[in-house]
Amino acid sequence: NVSEMKISTFWKGEVGVKGVCEEQGKTYRVSLYIKGSQLRDYSCSCAEGNSYKGPCAHAKAVYGAYQKECGGQAPRPVYTDQEVRTMIREYTNGAVSYTHLTLPTNAVCR
Known about the structure:
Layout: E1 2-9, E2 14-23, E3 26-35, E4 38-44, H1 57-70, H2 82-101
Antiparallel strand pairs: 1-2, 2-3, 3-4
């Protein structure tokens, strides 16, 4: 039984899903990483939650709930337009330049 689920989208169709699955009075926390329509990585707080054998029952339940809620389609990916990316890059470059300019001349790097 999946009692909570939070879906986050990243760049290029990558999706993070965090869920809580309850089974026989115990609560398990599940994290999924999905790219496209494929489950790429997962973790669960149960004993079998990080097995090389494949997803545990809790991860499968959260993945099934995600597919049911999203209809098998990933939510719309995050998009930042070119103007905003340029502004961030200029700000970052300026902040780095300012940091280099404010170091004392006798500073020792370790």
